[in-house]
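Consider the following assembly input.
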Amino acid sequence: MIYPEEFEKLLEDFKLLPGIGDKSAERFVYAIDSLSLDKVNEFSENLIKYKENIKKCKICGHITNQDECNICSKDSRDKNTICVVEDSKSVFTFEKSGKFNGVYHVLGGLISPIDEVNPEDLNIRSLIDRINDDTKEVIIALNPSVEGEMTSLYIQKLLKEKNVKVSRLSYGIPMGGDIEYLDPLTIMRAIDDRKYLE
Amino acid sequence: MIYPEEFEKLLEDFKLLPGIGDKSAERFVYAIDSLSLDKVNEFSENLIKYKENIKKCKICGHITNQDECNICSKDSRDKNTICVVEDSKSVFTFEKSGKFNGVYHVLGGLISPIDEVNPEDLNIRSLIDRINDDTKEVIIALNPSVEGEMTSLYIQKLLKEKNVKVSRLSYGIPMGGDIEYLDPLTIMRAIDDRKYLE
């Protein structure tokens, strides 16, 4: 073993992070060298604090350090418009846009038979249970992938009996995109989802 | 603040790592989610253990968890052939090649007036002090950059009075490289360092 044991172990830990191989992990270990002991202590504690204190919101499944997330617990949010997303990452993305004032429902993944992810592995039952007579709309905001479409269809079917308005995000040309370089599927979707002008 | 506090803090910690911005740091935090608590505890401890136990070898400056690194303390290594490198990273690179049986001297950087790195900030004095009548050769193995050349020249000058054989790595065409795509400087160096065939 050419590395000291402590080096090797930390290297292996960094390699648990997505997209990090030997080279990057090595660079990370060297970076720890140049941090102060206080800073590394803090880093070490923050890892544990994150793992111990972060849980899923009991209403929507979004990550939080409380029983209810900061969105579900906010009075100003419209509790009757529910945006269904794949994961907490999507919630942050939507929140950064600042456009949406409803609440979310985090599925925790997408249905994918090939990866053995079935509907019962996802946070779908609790979505259906949340819907009541006051619910105005469920917006399905999943990726336009095979898994996204499959999950969307599954949810739509379940929601039918609930008699609630269901919508999905529009597909189309991304802002700043160039039509010349768009794939045929996106073009097709952009035509399907075209918006009539007044 | 859209992130929970624990999320935000860990995010900032990951951003201390080289080349890691908001997006990657966010992905890393999510990755921590999918690790077991035991694993995260271990990661957290390994950070501290690394920081607390890893120090510089008192002979060569290479990282180690002992007083002397595993190279300096190995009887089979030729203590009289010293390879001068920029950092411990280089030591590992050389060790991986398995070609070199001497010992190292880790400078801990390169002279760089623009970054205010002066000779006295580097592990140079201890290199000179190490050289004695038994020393057979000092191999300078620094990057062929302006800073590398500057540092190399500085060390060469100091070593002159020591009357020891000094060499540097050869410059030239990298194995697997294609001459067509080499920069003119490398071509020039490859001609300068050409090897006469018997």
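Chain B has a mean pLDDT of 90. Ask yourself how this observation constrains the way the partners meet.
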